[in-house]
């Protein structure tokens, strides 16, 4: 699935390094996009000592864990190309840990990637890749 959402510039003077602000903005747009698809955001930026999950959502039937990758250009490839097999395995492990810590019994879990391209002076490009790992 692909979609576009009008790009809104980051707040000036946020005090964050540019790459962190870019990532935060990408996650905001991804969460908005997923909500527009009817998913409910259960958790954001969940952290434990082994890593972080960007977005945990549900459609009421399954839990959807989304890895969000944001880039300002494609000089190093498309954003989703940054999700390596090692990263995918870590996200899967963390997803099951999140389920245990939140006392959620057996359920179907799907792992998605949401790719956000925020090129200067362009509309944001969002690609949703459901169930890619």
UniProtKB/TrEMBL annotation:
Region ranges (Disordered): 1-20
Family annotation (Pfam families): UPF0102
Keywords: Endonuclease, Hydrolase, Nuclease
Keyword Hydrolase: yes
Domain of life, per lineage: Bacteria
InterPro entries according to UniProt: Restrct_endonuc-II-like, tRNA_endonuc-like_dom_sf, UPF0102_YraN-like
GO terms, molecular function: endonuclease activity; nucleic acid binding
Gene3D superfamilies: 3.40.1350.10
Entries under NCBIfam families matching the protein: PRK12497.1-3, PRK12497.3-3
Family under the similarity heading: Belongs to the UPF0102 family.
Protein name per its UniProtKB record: UPF0102 protein SAMN05216266_10281
Species of the source: Amycolatopsis marina
């Amino acid at each position: 699935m692909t979609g576009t959402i009008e790009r809104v510039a980051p707040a000036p003077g946020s005090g964050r390094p540019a790459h962190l602000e870019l990532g935060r903005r990408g996650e905001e747009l991804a969460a908005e996009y997923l909500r527009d698809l009817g998913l409910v955001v259960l958790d954001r930026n969940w952290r434990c000592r082994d890593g972080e999950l960007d977005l945990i959502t549900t459609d009421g039937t399954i839990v959807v864990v989304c890895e969000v990758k944001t880039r300002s250009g494609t000089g190093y490839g498309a954003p989703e190309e940054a999700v390596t097999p090692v990263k995918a395995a870590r996200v899967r492990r963390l997803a099951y840990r999140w389920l245990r810590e939140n006392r959620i019994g057996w359920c179907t879990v799907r792992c998605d990637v949401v790719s956000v391209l925020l090129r200067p002076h362009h509309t944001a490009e969002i690609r949703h890749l459901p169930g890619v790992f």
